[in-house]
Design brief:
mainly alpha, Ammonium transporter fold, 12 helices
Length: 355
């Protein structure tokens, strides 16, 4: 709803704001679709809104993983409103709304389906939240060493990752915006193959690296490796070769493992690895586009990647910092130990008789 009334108008303010940093103009959602001038790759605002709303929601839900287990529910709603109504639309405008990144000459910043605009935005916002909240109770011992807090159900986690993998075929190939004519069909299928290869490479490398480092094949690292590969290929799935997609995914698998370990060293508690998966590998996807992408500029890709990451982090750091300053960010110790289901929502997920 916030994206419908505010966010979309910030993200697509029109040609009069081309090359700018900020704009606002309400689209004509009421115009009849049948009367609009629509061709391949041209979307009526209603169609584009629904497609972008899914991207916007993705950026917001990325943050939830980084702040899980200790954020007050009303603070969750507040950050969601700000991220979907302002932060994501602004970075989306910079690239996809023909803002300063999309209008760069002679080579514009390239982010085909959102490694930066969606994933780095959500990942760096999540990092800001995790820093402001502090770690969960019992996450680190008195010496500052990490104590693992196992997930509730690894089978559900695995299922969730594969649901995401299937959904990515709407995310990346769908960003071609057309499936008519041989050229579009070929482009969509190339994007789908690159997406698949990067995900597989990330998962294999994440598993192999964790196996070599810890002596066991860590399923969670493999799953995060799959997601990391997907995030990294999202910016460039349309402009790299199959072999380059494998390399991009493999590097993502390395980065996510060391990213998770780095957060432990820094005593930053990110329960699901949202920042290593989406933040670090979102930036890697942007930079990889400059390294491998045909006709792309590495310098421009670095500038755009840093700009989106820095803006997303500090914008949300202010939000989370303000909530913390007024005592409205984190639940009490008693509420956290008892669990947020009862204290925040007044019900238990499994019922009181569940084992």
């Amino acid at each position: 709803i916030i994206f419908f009334f505010i966010g979309y108008a910030l993200m697509y303010p029109g040609e009069s704001f081309k090359g700018g940093y900020f704009g606002y103009s309400q689209p004509d959602f009421e115009a009849g679709v049948a009367d609009a001038d629509i061709g391949a790759g041209k979307l009526h605002p209603q169609v584009d809104f629904l497609f972008q709303a899914a991207f916007c929601a993705t950026a917001a839900t990325i943050v939830s993983g980084a702040v899980a287990g200790r954020l007050k529910f009303h603070s969750y709603l507040i950050y969601t409103v700000i991220l979907t109504g302002f932060v994501y639309p602004v970075v989306g405008f910079w690239k996809w709304g023909n803002g300063w990144l999309g209008a760069m000459e002679p080579v514009a910043f390239h982010d085909f389906a959102g490694s930066l605009v969606v994933h780095a935005c959500g990942g760096f916002a999540g990092l800001a939240g995790a820093i402001m909240l502090g770690p969960r109770i019992g996450r680190f011992n008195a010496e500052g060493k990490p104590i693992p807090i196992p997930g509730h159900n690894i089978a559900y986690v695995t299922l969730g990752v594969f649901i995401l993998l299937i959904g990515w075929y709407g995310f990346n190939p769908g960003s071609q915006l057309a499936f008519s004519g041989g050229a579009n069909v070929n482009a969509v299928m190339t994007i789908a193959v690159n997406t698949t290869l990067a995900a597989c490479a990330g998962g294999v490398v994440g598993m192999a690296l964790s196996w070599g480092m810890f002596g066991k094949s860590d399923l969670t690292m493999a799953l995060n490796g799959i997601l990391a590969g997907l995030v990294a290929i999202t910016a460039n799935c349309d402009c790299v070769t199959n072999h380059e997609a494998l390399i991009i995914g493999a590097v993502a698998g390395v980065l996510v493992v060391f990213g998770i370990l780095a957060l432990d060293k820094l005593k930053i508690d990110d329960p699901v690895g949202a920042f290593p998966v989406h933040g670090i590998n979102g930036v890697w996807g942007g930079i990889a586009t400059g390294i491998f992408g045909d006709g792309k500029s590495l310098q421009v890709q670095i500038i755009g990647s840093v700009a989106i990451a820095v803006f997303s982090f500090f914008a949300m750091l202010i939000v989370f910092g303000a909530l913390k300053a007024i005592g409205q960010l984190r639940v009490s110790r008693e509420e956290e130990i008892a669990g947020l289901d009862i204290h925040e929502h007044g019900m238990s997920c499994y019922g009181q008789d569940s084992a």
